[in-house]
């Protein structure tokens, strides 16, 4: 086999490989058969399991920055809306759990803004409005079908100052993570053979 033929075969194999296998940091499939022939999906309201932020922020401590309840609830609603939009392209959205319906329950475990929030200013009053952070989020997803847990996924997205993007929006990196997950999660559900590996 020539190098050129090997390169072409490698490229074709890479294209044929399912994208979803490595889409999430952790994936545990408990019942692969329950992921077959999914037609209806119910996206449950997001659960918030955010760590409590430090009262006084020290950039070197590694402690999480505080997120106000209002911001957390708003971002949870944004995540659910994007997930619904992502699933609506290839699945029927159910209004409630029911027989044969795959129930998706997202849980936000961290939220980090890209620009200062009111919670940041309350904790550090001298913080500049021009401050920029590498924001992000951590998501875990529980999937159930007919009352049985099917799979759990977990992923963390962390922005980087090396990505070259200008951070204008307060939740820009978090919104980027939500957009990514709204595309990856439906693809992951569509590929039960890949999910079963």
Short description:
By secondary structure, the protein is an alpha/beta fold. It has 5 helices and 7 strands.
Instruction: Write down how many β-strands occur, each being a DSSP E stretch of 2 or more residues.
Output: 7
Envelope shape: elongated
| Beginning-to-end CA distance, first to last residue | 30 Å
CATH class label: Alpha Beta
Structural class: alpha/beta
Q: Using the 3D structure, state the CATH architecture.
A: 2-Layer Sandwich
Care to describe what's here?
- The chain is an alpha/beta fold.
- The chain has a single domain (18-195), classed as Double Stranded RNA Binding Domain (2-Layer Sandwich).
- The protein is 32% helix and 22% strand.
- It has 5 helices and 7 strands; from the N terminus they run αβββαββαββαα.
- Strands 1, 2, 3, 4, 5, 6 and 7 form a 7-stranded mixed β-sheet that branches.
- A hairpin with a 2-residue loop joins strand 6 and strand 7.
- Helix 2 (69-88) runs parallel beside helix 4.
- The longest helix has 20 residues, at 69-88.
- The protein starts with a helix and ends with a helix.
- The model is unreliable at 4-21 (pLDDT under 50).
Task: Summarize the topology.
Blueprint: H1 3-16, E1 26-29, E2 40-43, E3 47-48, H2 69-88, E4 92-93, E5 102-112, H3 118-123, E6 136-145, E7 148-158, H4 172-190, H5 192-195
Parallel strand pairs: 2-4, 2-5, 3-5
Antiparallel strand pairs: 1-7, 5-6, 6-7
Helix pairs in contact: 2-4
């Amino acid at each position: 086999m020539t190098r050129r033929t090997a390169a072409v075969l490698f490229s074709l194999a890479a294209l044929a490989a399912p994208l979803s296998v490595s889409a999430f940091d952790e994936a545990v499939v408990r019942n692969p058969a329950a992921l077959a022939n999914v037609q209806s999906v119910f996206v449950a309201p997001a659960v918030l399991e955010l760590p409590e932020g430090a009262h006084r922020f020290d950039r070197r401590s590694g402690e999480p920055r505080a997120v106000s309840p209002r911001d957390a609830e708003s971002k949870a609603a944004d995540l659910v809306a994007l997930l619904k939009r992502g699933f609506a392209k290839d699945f029927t959205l159910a209004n409630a759990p029911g027989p044969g319906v795959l129930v998706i329950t997202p849980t936000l475990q961290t939220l980090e803004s890209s620009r200062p929030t009111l919670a940041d200013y309350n904790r550090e009053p001298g913080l500049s409005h021009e401050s920029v952070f590498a924001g992000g989020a951590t998501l875990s997803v529980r999937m159930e079908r007919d009352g049985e847990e099917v799979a759990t996924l977990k992923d963390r997205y962390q922005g980087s100052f090396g990505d070259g993007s200008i951070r204008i929006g307060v939740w820009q990196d978090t919104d980027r993570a939500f957009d990514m997950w709204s595309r990856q999660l439906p693809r992951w559900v569509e590929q039960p053979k890949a999910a079963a590996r």
